[in-house]
């Protein structure tokens, strides 16, 4: 059969995966084979193919859970085959025996047997209707294959979120067409494909295909998925009464998000690039001399003697071990950038080529360099090969980690050398276009777990795929421009990314590209005198950086980076420095709050940088808001992204009262206000009925941080669980860390704690109840 011939490569690659458990049932719809495979009461996989072997084969890379049909039942009736659990009911609709086609149908009718599937919640409400599927034959990378896809109906008022990172500046995906592929050169900024989309109607879809995929959510009253390479349709449906239940389902299916080292919540200082050991240490000492907190120094690219040597150039970094010892004595950690690219002249190129461990063509010849841009040198490590991954880690361990570096920045994880038209060991680069970030970060995650089992892992990664969060990766928005427009796009881009189930995202504070913005439309709010970070023509850049820094002070991680001559906090002018220091100290005061949120994410899978639709599902006004968000359960953040303004409109969601963090004035929700936004303030509101622990100032998270206060914002009963541990090792996985739950009673006006705080303090003397104005 033609489809079996086309599926040869897919069958070969699937055979390498663990055998799947028997599906709950296999349904034949006139030659369309449908496999139904539950993974939990609210998670079910649907696979549709023309061949049973493909229909029952396990999912592709990304999902790592085992099927679980406990509590599920299967029956057949006139409507079709009905699969039910306590959480949902899935029906594969009955299909009559096909009649002979009319003359018109002979021309227009699809060749595939029709398959229709509906999913309803426990209350009988329709959540999802799949109305059709497709397989269109074509040839990709000399492989006879298919475009595969499925179409779904749209519910009234339905909105869509996620699918990774898109920097077009809009949160809601409805009515758009998303090119779901890793693309460093996407016009608005790098796009990253994580094919998990959630809706405001109680379900999410995990699309099980790693090739480039087009998704059109809610366009022309339909949602259409189409992948470029495949021989079957495979997807998971996750249902839930809340969005957090959807994220718990995603975590169960693809892996939990581990709690990062505590240093990840402090300031991470980087630059492209520190050219010498002395320059890096001078910046670190500069923070200490100015009494500014700092946790991590980053050594970016070109510290090596040649790309692919996996070494450290001792001409400019004569004593990397001593450098790291100095950082550790300052209470800091280090991150170093390691690339998967190998120049032809580097020591490992021939070895890797002979092993077949580099991206190659069909004839086995190594693909060397990019067809676009100026950085054309080097071949790509084939991280789809487990032996290549293991080798890569051993070289990092022996050549770099041995010099005292704590954690690793795996750059170019798209990968930067686009694999389309070439071959991985697992199959064609087109078939696995989006897979690389998962397998490449696995090299360090698995190697570190084996060789440094007591050290908590952290990886900086520029791209993601299904499951990458389980590797301990922190993500950022790539090499964005240093302009107001770029800043404006970061806010919805980050919210879309965290809505994908990836909790740790931020952006290069100030933008990565050399500052070269247009002339300011308004008088700059900060005098640029003394700034070294930009040319004199960019007079409003200190203002831009300050607004960006204020915003990133309320993202999961805070990292300064860029190609600027200087990136440290004091290099944006004498007027900006004290304002920036104020935001930095606020960030450090909030670390007890943030670390507790990180622990909660590890337990639940739910992100803590949250688009408003997640927490206010009954307020239709928030469905499309992408320039405000919740930061944990307490804070509503409204970044300022326009030059020269000192106020902005802020919508306060209905169903809650809100306190202005700066003035403590109380507002009723469901209204838009004009919020003051002087340059030293970011519009920041606290939800009534919140508990916010605030820590004393410390120079880094290496210093024990007692609580300075526990701020209660009355309005309803509230609880908050504090969490702490040593912040560095994996001992918390055995001991569970230290916790205490704080509970506020609105009726009595009292705060109670479940015991002594993780800091050893007594809560009673720390409570401050905000009275409001």
Describe the structure using short key phrases.
773 residues, alpha+beta, Immunoglobulin-like, 15 helices, 20% helix
Structure write-up:
It is built from 15 helices and 40 strands. The chain has 773 residues and is of the alpha+beta class. Among the domains are: 163 residues, Immunoglobulin-like; 160 residues, Sandwich (Immunoglobulin-like), CATH 2.60.40. Strands 4-5-6-7-8-9-15-14-11 form a 9-stranded antiparallel sheet. Strands 25-24-23-22-19-18-17-26 form an 8-stranded parallel sheet. The longest helix is centred in the middle third of the chain and has 16 residues.
Global geometry: globular
Radius of gyration: 26 Å
- Count up the helices: 15
> CATH top level of the domain at 25-99 and 106-156 and 203-239?
Mainly Beta
Spatial sequence of strands, sheet with the most strands = 4-5-6-7-8-9-15-14-11
Structural class: alpha+beta
């Amino acid at each position: 059969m033609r489809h079996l011939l086309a599926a040869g490569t897919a069958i070969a690659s699937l055979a390498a995966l663990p055998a799947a458990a028997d599906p709950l049932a296999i349904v034949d719809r006139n030659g369309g084979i449908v496999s139904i495979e539950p993974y939990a009461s609210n998670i079910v996989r649907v696979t549709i193919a023309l061949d049973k072997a493909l229909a029952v084969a396990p999912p592709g890379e990304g999902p790592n859970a085992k099927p679980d049909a406990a509590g599920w039942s299967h029956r057949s009736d006139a409507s079709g085959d009905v699969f039910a659990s306590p959480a949902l009911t899935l029906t594969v609709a009955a299909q009559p025996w096909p009649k002979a086609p009319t003359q018109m149908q002979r021309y227009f009718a699809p060749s595939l047997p029709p398959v229709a599937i509906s999913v309803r919640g426990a209350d009988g409400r329709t959540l999802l209707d799949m109305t059709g599927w497709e397989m269109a034959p074509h040839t990709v990378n000399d492989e006879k294959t298919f475009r595969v896809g499925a179409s779904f109906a749209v519910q009234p008022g339905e909105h869509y979120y996620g699918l990774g990172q898109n920097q077009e500046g809009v949160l809601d995906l409805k009515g758009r067409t998303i090119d779901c592929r890793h693309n460093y050169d996407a016009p608005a900024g790098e796009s990253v494909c994580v094919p998990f989309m959630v809706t405001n109607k109680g379900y999410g879809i995990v699309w099980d295909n790693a090739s480039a995929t087009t998704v059109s959510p809610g366009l022309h009253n339909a949602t259409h998925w189409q992948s470029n390479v495949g021989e079957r349709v495979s997807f998971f449906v996750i249902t839930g009464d809340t969005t957090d239940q959807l994220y718990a389902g995603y975590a169960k299916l693809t892996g939990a998000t581990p709690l990062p080292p505590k240093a990840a919540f402090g300031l991470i200082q980087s630059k492209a690039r520190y050219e010498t050991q002395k320059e890096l240490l001078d910046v670190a000492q500069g923070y200490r001399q100015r009494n500014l907190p700092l946790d991590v120094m980053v050594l970016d690219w070109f510290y090596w003697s040649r790309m692919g040597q996996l070494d450290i150039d001792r001409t400019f970094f004569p004593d990397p071990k001593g450098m790291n010892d100095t950082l550790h004595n300052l209470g800091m950690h280090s991150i170093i950038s390691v690339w998967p690219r190998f120049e032809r002249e580097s020591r490992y190129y021939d070895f890797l080529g002979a092993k077949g461990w580099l991206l190659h063509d069909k004839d086995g010849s190594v693909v060397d360099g990019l067809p676009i841009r100026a950085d054309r040198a080097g071949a790509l490590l084939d991280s789809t090969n487990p032996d290549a991954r293991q080798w890569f880690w051993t070289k990092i361990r022996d050549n770099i980690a041995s010099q005292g570096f704590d954690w690793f920045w795996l750059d170019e994880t798209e990968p930067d050398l686009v694999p389309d038209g070439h071959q991985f060991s697992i199959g064609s680069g087109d078939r696995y276009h989006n897979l690389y970030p998962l397998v490449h970060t696995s090299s360090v995650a698995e190697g570190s777990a084996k060789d440094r089992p007591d050290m908590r892992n952290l990886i900086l990664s520029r791209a993601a795929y299904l499951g990458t969060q389980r590797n301990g990766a922190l993500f950022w928005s790539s090499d964005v421009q240093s302009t107001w427009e770029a800043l404006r796009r970061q806010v919805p881009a980050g919210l879309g990314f965290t809505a994908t189930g990836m909790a740790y995202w931020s952006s290069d504070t100030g933008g990565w590209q050399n500052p070269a913005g247009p002339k300011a439309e308004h008088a700059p709010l900060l005098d640029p005198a003394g700034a070294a970070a930009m040319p004199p023509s960019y007079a409003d850049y200190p203002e831009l950086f300050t607004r960006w820094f204020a915003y990133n002070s309320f993202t999961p991680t805070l990292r300064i980076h860029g190609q600027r001559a200087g990136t440290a906090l004091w290099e944006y002018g004498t007027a900006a420095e004290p304002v920036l220091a104020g935001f930095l100290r606020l960030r450090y005061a909030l670390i007890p709050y943030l670390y507790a949120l990180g622990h909660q994410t590890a337990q639940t899978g739910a992100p803590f940088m949250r688009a408003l639709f997640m927490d206010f599902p009954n307020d239709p006004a928030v469905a499309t808001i992408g320039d405000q968000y919740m930061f944990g359960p307490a804070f509503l953040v409204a970044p300022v992204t326009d030059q020269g303004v000192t106020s902005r409109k802020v919508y306060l969601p209905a169903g809650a009262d809100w306190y202005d963090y700066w003035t403590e004035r109380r507002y009723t929700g469901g209204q838009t206000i004009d919020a003051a936004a002087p340059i030293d303030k970011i519009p920041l509101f606290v939800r009534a009925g919140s508990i916010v622990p605030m820590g004393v100032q410390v120079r880094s998270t290496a210093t024990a941080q007692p609580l300075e206060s526990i701020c209660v914002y009355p309005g309803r009963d509230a609880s908050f669980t504090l969490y702490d541990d040593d912040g560095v090792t994996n001992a918390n996985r055995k001991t569970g860390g230290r916790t205490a739950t704080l509970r506020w009673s609105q009726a009595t006006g009292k705060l109670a704690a479940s015991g002594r705080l993780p800091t050893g303090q007594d809560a009673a003397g720390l409570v401050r109840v905000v009275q409001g104005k």
